[in-house]
Amino acid sequence: MSTHDSAADRILAGELATAAGELLLDVRATSGLAGKELGNAGDQRSNDFILARLAEERPDDAVLSEESTDDKSRLTAERVWIIDPVDGTREYGTDGHADWAVHVALWSAADGLIVGAVALPALGVTYVDSPEPVTPVDGLAAGPKGDRPRVVVSASRPPEFSQAVADAIGGEVLQMGSAGAKAMAVVRGEADAYVHAGGQYEWDSAAPVAVTQAKGLWCGRIDGSELVYNRDNTYMPDLVICRPEIRDAVIGVTAAYA
User: Fold this and answer.
1) CATH of the domain at 251
2) Do 183 and 112 share a domain, yes or no?
């Protein structure tokens, strides 16, 4: 069993997400690639970097990454790092988009998600699972918020209940890329809820959920149940992240679609 403490793991997760993000910005600026080719190259470079660092820093831990073959030994491991080297690959490959991220999370058999870091490299910021308030950033992915509550949803797969959720909280719907970017928009107060029902995998939400829970937000399935990680099947059909005071209003809508 590992003797690492969560503070050291949190620092490592933040460093890995930030450094991978800087690498991705460099690939974007210097490779001459675009679109899907840039996305594939960025995924590979970021994944190789994070895995190499974890092998060096935490050699006894298992890893689940979107870009690597799933080693099922993780199912009996005490600790599993859950990685998305580029969350929002389409946005990363599209010039001018800031709504893409790097996710680094750590799950433990005893306590579930214990560490999370979400880097938004194009905004120059990384969020970790600490209760400290966040500071404003320039170039907000969602843009400044008006008086109405906002519900952020996937730009490519918005759930059919998006408008109904917005109506339930007297708000409006905003489409964005990257689960991490949408979750951090809620953390920063640019949005009040993030709802998804188009299917994801554990690496899409593990780090964002660790960060948002630490910031006092509610996270769960659209039926109101708990999110569970490091399962044999890594598919996760749906997700809600929202301010706790609107949780009942949101779930009151989404539960019917579970």
Assistant:
1) 3.40.190.80
2) no
* 77 alpha-carbon distance from chain centroid: 22
Question: What residue numbers bound the domain in which 167 lies?
Answer: 150-257
pTM attached to this predicted model: 0.94
pLDDT in tens, 48-75: 999 999 999 999 999 999 999 999 999 9
d(CA 252, CA 165): 9
Pull the structure tokens for residue 109: 């058999």
What's the pLDDT tens digit per position in 83-118? Answer: 999 999 999 999 889 999 999 999 999 999 999 999
| Residue 61 within a domain | yes
Q: How many CB atoms are closer than 10 A to CB 127?
A: 27
Is 140 part of a structural domain of the chain?
Answer: no
Residue 58 lies in a domain: yes
Q: Give the SS3 label for residue 7.
A: helix
Contact yes or no for 168/223 (Cβ under 8 A): no
Report the 3 state secondary structure along 107-132. Answer: EECCCEEEEEEEEEHHHCEEEECCCC
SS3 content of the chain, % helix, strand, coil (to 5): 40, 25, 35
241: its two tokens: 């992240």
Burial of 134 (0-12, 13-18, 19+ CB in 10 A): middle
- Please report where in the chains the tokens 């699972």 appear, as a residue: 129
Count how many residues are written for the chain: 258
List the one residue out of 219, 218, 253, 256 whose CA is nearest residue 236: 219
